[in-house]
Design a protein that fits this description.
Elements: E1 2-4, H1 8-19, E2 25-27, H2 35-39, E3 43-44, H3 48-54, E4 57-60, H4 65-72, E5 83-86, H5 92-104, E6 108-115, E7 127-132, H6 134-145, E8 149-152, H7 159-186, H8 192-207, H9 210-219, H10 230-246, H11 256-261, H12 265-268
Parallel strand pairs: 1-2, 1-4, 2-3, 4-5, 5-6, 7-8
Antiparallel strand pairs: 6-7
The protein binds NADP nicotinamide-adenine-dinucleotide phosphate.
Length: about 290
Amino acid sequence: VTVIGLGAMGRALAETFLRQGYLTTVWNRSANKADLLVSQGAVRATTVAEAVTASQLLVVCVVDYTAVLDLLDPHADRLGGRVLVNLTNGTPAQARRLAAWAMAQGAEYLDGGIMAVPAMIGQAVAQLLYSGSQEAFVAHRDTLSHLGTSSYLGNDPGLASLYDLALLSGMYGLFGGFLHAVALVGTERVTATAFLRLLLPWLSGMLEALPALATQIDRGDYTHEVASNLVMQAIAVANIIDASTAQGIRNYLVAPLQALVNPAPARRDGAHHAREPLAARSPLADD
Ligand SMILES: NC(=O)c1ccc[n+]([C@@H]2O[C@H](COP(=O)([O-])OP(=O)(O)OC[C@H]3O[C@@H](n4cnc5c(N)ncnc54)[C@H](OP(=O)(O)O)[C@@H]3O)[C@@H](O)[C@H]2O)c1
């Protein structure tokens, strides 16, 4: 295996392959980041060309897709017959463009999203999402499975980053709510650490509301009797905004929620969006 890019994540990927006994060739723009890996048995490629030709399976994990293409394009003629697994964070459109470019060079392309921090790599708790060439995924499934729990989402190379960004959106929404919450109590000198004693069990309890919300969304039917109706929610969000302003806290993390909880007049009358259920279209529907 070749690993190109030895930032925090690339090093964790390379270390895991090494630990599993793979002959692992590594390259990084700042060469010194390979030193520890080399002392552990990795092969140092001194050029990208060397890194590309060393292995059939090329794993790339750098800062963004521009860097991926800048690194590989000068060596495009060496990519034929190899499998390029790009674990760099990007958009579905970037993934589709890079896949088309790689295939034009005669390479198989798998795009990947890593749902883990580096310390989790190599454990089942790390989730790795893949999309693109199914043949490449099947051929290298065993090798890739050492990194964590793999999910193959489909032939469209853009799917892994779509899911990745959706999962990250959930995380950033949580972090945004957390930051606003601790800022609000912080105005009365409550520390973030102390507040966690209440916040953590509260958020864990609220996570249990998600399956019921997901069912409503998938059915497109919001007419059922619920314990926490929208008018009540709209008052609570308005109160958060008023109280935050009064305590001197800016509302930019919470303010967008107001548009969501203030239903359009047509919807207040009970009208709702009826549409085809979504579940059947999900590659993970049977999991
Ligand atoms: N760290 C995480 O928690 C985490 C979690 C999930 C996914 N990821 C994803 O993993 C990818 C890498 O993240 P990271 O945490 O490893 O970041 P990082 O520690 O900042 O490393 C960035 C890597 O990109 C390289 N790089 C930057 N610009 C470059 C260029 N123009 N040409 C060649 N190489 C370039 C850096 O090389 P130098 O060492 O020479 O600067 C380094 O190897 C990102 O897409 C990130 O979203 C990270």
